[in-house]
Design a protein that fits this description.
By secondary structure, this protein is of the alpha/beta class. It is built from 12 helices and 8 strands. It is globular, with a radius of gyration of 21 Å.
Length: 308
């Protein structure tokens, strides 16, 4: 005699309700994610303090880590500072370099440009490894719409191989206002085509909103697929399609559904870095330490309000 799924569940004491109850999330994990807090130097970039001061300010403000820009690292090293000195400076300020922001055109539609992008990425990865950074952003620079997502996935796979070679892993990034590669759906497609356990995504509150992705797609992502998440917020008084990087505000000062976002990140499991990334010229007119401290306070406050 055949046993139905419903009867089997009843026999196990789960009942008919369990058979019909929906899962709360595709990304539900048995272990709640832990957060570290990071300062992306864009947040105080307008004050132009320089890389050394970025590091000292992040440490003084109480961050766990810092997210540097590749061009700043290149400039600092070009001034005669050896990588070991920079690495020790970061450590002495109680920080870890969580990620680096770079713009190598590895996803370029033009194959010659793409090859140059891979060469640039390898050189930058090797540089970053020397200062103790094991991640780098990998946005779709050079791509043209419509992007061949199958080809982009194969290129990302090659970039991951390069990351394993250098010890600096590429974080697949998308920008909401960059038409060729602006949507979480495109990112998930590229990640699926890469078919690689080291795939990592780099989402951003503002970019999820600006590109029309919304936030429900975060529920499809599990565990360590997100290690770094850019934190910010956006105002209600500017139409979505007209918002720019400069309009980003502190977490909690806009209308983003931060409690839902943070809850989804927690449910994913895996350790995560919440990195404050702002480009607001109003904040650039203020004392950079005050801005850094305020941003950290608001990020922590938003997280503390969410219990799951």
């Amino acid at each position: 005699m055949k046993t139905s799924r419903r009867n089997l569940l009843k026999g196990l004491g789960l009942g008919a309700v369990a058979a019909l109850a929906p899962s709360t999330s595709f990304s539900q994990s048995a272990k709640i994610a832990k957060f570290r807090y990071c300062l992306n130097t864009s947040t105080i970039r307008g004050q132009k303090p320089g890389l050394r001061k970025y590091i000292e300010l992040a440490g003084e403000a109480g961050y766990d880590g810092i997210e540097v820009w590749v061009e700043d690292v290149k400039q600092y090293l070009a001034e005669g500072h050896p990588p070991a000195e920079l690495r020790h400076l970061i450590q002495d300020n109680g920080l870890k370099v969580e990620n680096a922001i770079g713009f190598a055109p590895w996803m370029a539609t033009d194959e010659a440009t793409s090859q140059q992008g891979f060469e640039q990425m390898e050189a930058e990865m090797n540089m970053l490894a020397e200062i103790g950074c094991n991640r780098v952003a990998a946005p779709g620079i050079g791509a043209e719409a419509p992007v061949d997502l199958m080809m982009a996935g194969k290129k990302y796979k090659a970039l991951l191989n390069l990351g394993r070679k250098t010890g600096v892993m590429p974080q697949l990034e998308f920008w909401g206002a960059f038409a060729p590669f602006h949507h979480l759906g495109q990112v998930l497609m590229v990640a699926a085509v890469a078919n690689d356990p080291d795939t990592r995504l780099l989402p951003d509150v503002y970019h999820l909103f600006r590109g029309g992705s919304g936030f429900e797609g975060l529920k499809l992502i599990h565990g360590n697929a997100i290690e770094v998440f850019h934190m910010n917020d956006y105002p209600a008084n500017i139409p979505r399609e007209q918002q720019q990087d400069k309009d980003r505000v502190y977490p909690g000062d806009g209308v983003a559904p931060l409690p839902e976002i943070i809850a989804d990140l927690k449910r994913m499991g895996g350790d995560k870095v919440l990195s404050l990334e702002l480009f607001n010229p109003v904040y650039w007119e203020k004392d950079p330490l005050e801005v850094a401290k305020t941003g950290l306070m608001k990020m922590k406050g938003a997280v503390e309000e969410v219990s799951i």
